[in-house]
TrEMBL record:
Keywords: 2Fe-2S, Electron transport, Iron, Iron-sulfur, Metal-binding, Transport
Family: Belongs to the Bfd family.
Domain annotation BFD-like [2Fe-2S]-binding: ranges: 2-51
Domain of life (superkingdom): Bacteria
Listed GO MF terms: 2 iron, 2 sulfur cluster binding; metal ion binding
InterPro entries associated with the record: BFD-associated_ferredoxin, BFD-like_2Fe2S-bd_dom, BFD-like_2Fe2S-bd_dom_sf
Pfam family, one: Fer2_BFD
Organism: Photobacterium gaetbulicola
Cofactor: [2Fe-2S] cluster
The protein's name in its UniProt record: Bacterioferritin-associated ferredoxin
Amino acid sequence: MYVCLCHGISDKKIMKLADQHGISDVRGIRQFTPLGSQCGKCIRQAKEVIEQATVTRYKKAS
C-alpha cells in the first residue's frame, strides 16, 4: 500500500529501510526518501509502519 502518494513511497519500502538501517523514526526514513516533504499527510501512517517494523525487528531478535 502506498503511504506517501506524492512521492510513491510504499509501506514495504519504509519497512525495508527501517529493517536494513535500524530506523525507528520518520527522520531516519527521510534520510533515504522525500517522505512527507510535499503535503505531509503521510507522516501519521508512516509512523505506524515504522512502529510495526520496529516491533517485528525486536521479535526477530528475541
